[in-house]
Amino acid sequence: MYRFLLTRQWVILTLIGLVLIPVMIELGFWQLHRHERRVAHNAKIGRALDAPPVPAERLTAPGRDVPDSAVYRRVTARGSYDPRHEVVVRRRTNADDEVGFHVLTPFVLDNGKVLLVNRGWIPADGPQTAFPKIPAPARGVVTVTGRLMADETSAASGIKDVRGLPDRQIMLISSGQQAHALGKEVLGGYIEQTSPQPDDGSPQLLGAPDHSGIGAHMAYAVQWWLFAAGVPAGWIVLVRREVKDRRAAAAKTESEPAEETAPATA
Predict the structure, then answer these.
(1) Exposed site from 50, 67, 106, 205, fewest CB < 10 Å?
(2) What is the C-alpha to C-alpha distance for residues 5 and 239, in angstroms, rounded to an integer?
(3) Rounded Cα–Cα distance for residues 121 and 215 (Å)
């Protein structure tokens, strides 16, 4: 009765099922690992934001990359803004998805080194080729606090570092590029300013990163595993249905000759 399983159609169907099961199981574990990484990343951001601020030079230095453990850590620095050499970062959005610029201002420390400060977002009121009007930063010696961030790269951000842009406009924040442009020692990475608050609310300070959502990776993992479990279950259902159909066909074949030979009644 089960010899049909050796037919070409059923062999192919069985092989497909045997291939799908481990693939779906592996896809489930892939989503599980993505969930675990997301949870760990959120926890890291939370610890960094909750930690007390430390001097920026304790976590970064000229010509060095910001270590992953220091990203989002709150840092402080004392010095003065250098608005003459500030630049804007193109095609950046605010919380309402409005397109504008980020304002990147060099902050000269007491020792002469420079810390790049992302002072926040401003709207793109004029043409992209024109340098926008930027609210002036605080004057004199001030203490600035912000979240330490690593240099931006095309690989990590997906933003192409376009060359030949209008003067004082950039696509990515790179301490190395700014060090070359300024001719000074620039600390690796940059900070997203959190204080002092601008007097008129502009530039708009950047909000803290969302570290509460975990996405649907765990749900996707369970979904893939259910699919993997459904493959053998579905195969069994198909086999039983095939057996039932074949038995019904055999019974019908056996009954047909009996009906033909049965004598007619008066």
Answers:
(1) 50
(2) 8
(3) 27
Segment 103-159, tens digit of pLDDT? 999 999 999 999 999 999 999 877 777 889 999 999 999 999 999 999 999 998 888
Dihedral, CA atoms, 14, 18, 19, 25, nearest 10 degrees?
Answer: 140
Q: In sequence order, which residues have a C-beta less than 8 Å from that of residue 186 and are 6 or more positions away?
A: 62, 106, 113, 114, 115, 116, 175, 176, 178, 179
Contact 98, 69 (CB under 8 A): no
Tell me: pLDDT of 26 over 90: yes
Q: Name the pTM for this structure.
A: 0.75
Q: Determine how β-strand 99-109 pairs with β-strand 190-195.
A: unpaired
Tell me how far apart the alpha carbons of residues 115 and 108 are, in angstroms, rounded to a whole number: 6
Mean pLDDT of the residues in the chain: 90
Bridge partners for 170 per DSSP = 89
What is residue 257's predicted lDDT score, i.e. its pLDDT?
65
